[in-house]
Prior knowledge:
2 copies of one chain form a homodimer. Chain A is α+β, with helices and mostly antiparallel strands. Chain A has 7 helices and 4 strands, in the order ααααββααββα.
Amino acid sequence: xxxxxxxxxPCGIARALDVVGDAWTLLIVREAxxxxxxxxxxxxTLAIPRNTLTARLRxxxxxxxxxxxxDADDRRRRIYELDRAGRELWVVLLALQQWxxxxxxxxxxxxxxxxxxxxxxxxxxxxxxxxxxxKLRLQDVTMIPxxxxxxxxxxxxxxxxxxxx
Amino acid sequence: xxxxxxxxxPCGIARALDVVGDAWTLLIVREAxxxxxxxxxxxxTLAIPRNTLTARLRxxxxxxxxxxxxDADDRRRRIYELDRAGRELWVVLLALQQWxxxxxxxxxxxxxxxxxxxxxxxxxxxxxxxxxxxKLRLQDVTMIPxxxxxxxxxxxxxxxxxxxx
Lengths: 165, 165
């Protein structure tokens, strides 16, 4: 059962969640990032039900996150690889992992983390910055209408600005 | 209907998705970030079904993302505010928004974006960096077992390292 689609909602967050908001989807992308490339590979490492995996892989290919090709060595087998939009999702996964590792594991510490391949030191916490490189905190930031903002959305942002939040 | 829980899975990404992998959940956090504080406020801006909203708010309070108090001016009303773990989710939302804005809207451009409140310029794209501040690309990064890695997970990382991905 799929939840409501946010396809018509004018918000980059909602639209991103429409594509990758399903937990299995992001875990498949995580696996693809670290080298899993076949149906059986995903099925074993994720312990994901067959029909769920079939549906999610099809979806990810349709949306340009993964691309698929036939294995040259075994023509019955398909190879799944991250396409460009999929590769760029690694920043989303990093943000999720840093948050999960910080808040979900208490004193035992995290089971795994992303690290520099050469130095083996963990990736530094992601820091939002303005265009001149200065750090931004949540309270420094507001939401602004973009080129595709609907009149309704613009009105909402005006109300937001008026109450100063 | 809730999907399978990843509570036992030793992965910060999976555990984060367990808490915030539901699309409504992250949209409620987005609203809270930009000033919505009441049940009716969330219901109107998100057009979310009442019972879904009730369940998600309870869940977010249970998990320490939101905290709730009684409105001093109207004691029948509850005020929901982001707790510390909830505030830190803004980096996850920013990563999602930047990805969604980049890949989901084509030539029309995004409907909204996060920006510096004072300069009105958009937040710079998040850049993963190592501990000395150098930029990291996906290919520079690997997954490393943490203090709470299970033997099974350690074996998987050894296999990953062996094939050089």
